[in-house]
Design brief:
The protein is mostly beta strands and 117 residues long. Helix content is 0%, strand content 54%. It is built from no helices and 11 strands. The strands form 2 sheets. Strands 2, 4, 5, 6, 9, 10 and 11 form a 7-stranded mixed beta sheet that branches. The chain has a 4-stranded antiparallel beta sheet with strand order 1-3-8-7, with no helix packed on it. A hairpin with a 5-residue loop joins strand 5 and strand 6. It is globular, with a radius of gyration of 14 Å. The protein starts with a strand and ends with a strand. 28% of the residues are buried.
């Protein structure tokens, strides 16, 4: 079983930066993809960014140029750093882990990010 625990959400002002962290524990299937989705009120969950075990990363168009996703493969963590936040970034952010050779997906409990003045 895999457990994902997010941290780093909260209330920030427009234009500020934020860093979200997610730590995976348990029996972690490898290789895998880790990343972040978000869900705003009344909207569908959308992919923010994901980082496979190798190189490269994918970002939503809405965060490209404002967001960096990174992984620590020793600590089994994934970080999401966002700059120049706007109210449109307000959402619950969910960490996920998706094994490449397993149909299971694992999700964190979500962390609220609110961008407001």
């Amino acid at each position: 079983q895999v457990q994902l625990v997010e941290s780093g959400g909260g209330l920030v002002q427009p234009g500020w930066s934020l860093r979200l962290s997610c730590a995976a524990s348990g029996i972690i299937p490898r290789p895998n993809v880790m990343g972040w989705y978000r869900q705003a009120p009344g909207k569908q969950r959308e992919l923010v960014a994901m980082r496979p075990a190798g190189s490269g990363a994918d970002y939503a168009d809405s965060v490209k140029g404002r967001c960096i996703i990174s992984r620590d493969f020793v600590k089994n963590t994934v970080l999401l750093q966002m700059v120049n936040l706007s109210p449109e970034d307000t959402a619950v952010y969910y960490c996920f882990l998706r094994p490449l050779f397993d149909s299971n997906e694992y999700w964190g409990q979500g962390t609220q990010v609110t961008v407001s003045s």
